[in-house]
Amino acid sequence: MSTTAQTISQSTPRAPFNLPWYLRDLPKYLLTFAVMTVIYVGFRMYQGAYAISTGLDSSDPAFDIHWMRLLYLEGAFLLIVFPMLWGYLWFTRDRNLDKITPKEEITRYFTLTMWISIYTFAVYWAGSYFAEQDNSWHQVSVRDTPFTANHIIEFYFNFPFYILMGGSAWLYARTRLPLYANGISLPLTLAVVGPFMIFVSVGFNEWGHTFWFREEFFAAPIHWGFVTGVWFALGVGGILLQQVMRLVQLLDQIEDAA
Amino acid sequence: MTGKSLDIPARPYTGEKARLSRAYDYLILVLALFLFIGSFHLHVALTVGDWDFWQDWKDRQWWPLITPLMMITFPAAVQAVLWPNFRLPLGATLCISCLLIGTWITRFFAYHMWNFFPINEVLPATMLPSALVLDAILMLSNSLTVTSIFGGMVFALLFYPTNWPIFGMFHVPVEYGGAQLTVADLFGFQYIRAGTPEYLRIIERGTLRTYGQYATPLSAFCSALLCTLMYPLWWYLGKAFATTKYVKNI
Asked: Fewest Cβ atoms nearer than 10 Å: which of A176, B23, B80, B176?
């Protein structure tokens, strides 16, 4: 690899806002961050406004209005967004992957990293903020339904939403990057499927809290399904190694051709 | 661990290649920040959680034992990727810093602002000094064995003394209703929870009480022993997850 001939940007597709060519999708990435922040902070503000006044008793008619309706809205939103996004990624797939240029492939690696970054942002809200907030809420409220004021957001929006983002990252890689199209990346699959199992663990959690003990004791075994699921996020280390190795190859190709 | 990558002469990128490389680094930084806040925080909350959430759970039996044992996990796994491949001696510090950021945000906005627990009742413990030393030992020794034995031990043994300046004041004895309590106990009785430790009956108990002041060092050394075993286990787990394999079917 030479340290002298390092100009690699001639005849490259232009990115918006005078951004470098490899950051073509940066505006979409930042916009997605902003929209997701509005959604999650909005949920938290809604909880602050209505959880104590209407979210403590599931037999209260106000609970139906403020919380069960929210659950149905979330379900409807996810039912629309899941097939739309995954369908878009699949039907707009690149059918000529053997013909893409090294620069285009580098740009797509940057975009894949942005997808994974968005996925981890969703994991943050699901695994960190709203997860521990669940403990806080269930210390002060009587758990008389699986659909509590925090579960409705944590289990039935946050969890499916990060699955949506993780699945999208996986699909993007599979449909737009040659290496990921020729073989299924094991670390990327682990990093997406493992946290998916956290969602499945909700069943064990609810069963445990219904028939075993109702108190919120976070270190209890009924929560360990969530724990093993999140270990698979360590697969991101493998994705990083795969990407770095490929990016170095691509940069060398561009330089050799220059 | 291998030192082969160091045999390749370093030829730094310049110009656009360097800028591209830096842009990628920044993307990875943002990705890693949210990844480790989200994943490591969930791991800790659901294993150590209750001992870290509440002042009155911070006992001498389980708190110094479980906290380092569960918190050395992700640091070891991340070090296994960042040190051999990139020579970045910051895996442990990165994980623990991310954990603290996530924990503090939640303690303030979820516990204090939403459910009105006093912030002093829900102060998180810190493993940051332990993480810095763990990273330093790996960097200086470049040895999995040395880091497992000495790093693992120090990681656990530093926990109690480095947290005592934060939590010592809550263990001052007070008399309340004719009984002797600590300030931490008082917090707990004033703010009754589903997870009140006396209610769950899993706080400090058993023969350790009869050991008096030796209870904490005993727990700490037990934790130190377990951390020396946990560290290599999670090192190899981290390496296994960081596979670069492609497969034909899943």
From this structure: B176
B128 within a domain of the structure (yes/no): yes
> Residues A28-40: pLDDT tens digits?
999 999 999 999 9
pLDDT digits (tens, 9 = 90+) for A73-112: 999 999 999 999 999 999 999 999 999 999 999 999 999 9
Regarding predicted confidence, which is higher, B6 or A131? Answer: A131
Give me the pLDDT at residue A88, please: 97
* Residue of B8, B14, B24 to mutate, interface with A, max A Cβ within 10 Å: B24
pLDDT at A3: 39
Residues ≥6 apart with Cβ < 8 Å to A250: A102, A105, A106, A109
Which residues 6+ apart lie within 8 Å of A56 measured at CB?
A141, A142, A149
Q: Output the pLDDT for position B15.
A: 85
DSSP secondary structure, chain A, as one string: --SS-----TT-PPPGGG--GGGTTHHHHHHHHHHHHHHHHHHHHHHHHHHHHHSS-TTSHHHIIIIIHHHHHHHHHHHHHHHHHHHHHHHT--S-GGG--HHHHHHHHHHHHHHHHHHHHHHHIIIIIHHHHHHHHHHHS---SSS-TTHHHIIIIIHHHHHHHHHHHHHHHHHH-HHHHHSEEHHHHHHHHHHHHHHHHHHHHHHHHHHT--S--TTSGGGHHHHHHHHGGGGHHHHHHHHHHHHHHHHHHHHHH-
The mean per-residue pLDDT over the stretch A153-180 comes to 96
DSSP 8-state symbol, B110? I
Q: Where are the domains of chain A?
A: 16-257
Which segment of A103-107, B121-125, B129-133, B195-199 scores lowest on mean pLDDT? Answer: B195-199
Q: Which of residues 216-235 of A touch B (CB under 8 A)?
A: 216-219, 223-224, 226-227, 230-235
Could you say which of B28, B246, B249 has the minimum Cβ distance to residue A179? B246
Our count of domains for chain B comes to 1
What pTM did the predictor assign? 0.92
Domain A16-257 fold: Glutathione S-transferase Yfyf (Class Pi); Chain A, domain 2 (1.20.1050)
Confidence of residue A6 (pLDDT cuts 50, 70, 90): very low
Nearest CB to A183; choose among B51, B103, B247? B247
Interface test with A, best of B50, B55, B115 (most A CBs within 10 A): B115
- In the three-class reduction of DSSP (H, G, I as helix; E, B as strand; rest coil), residue B192 is classed as coil
CB contact under 8 A, A22 and B241: no
The pLDDT assigned to A15 comes to 78
Are A3 and B53 an interchain contact pair (Cβ–Cβ within 8 Å)? no
Structural domain contains residue B95: yes
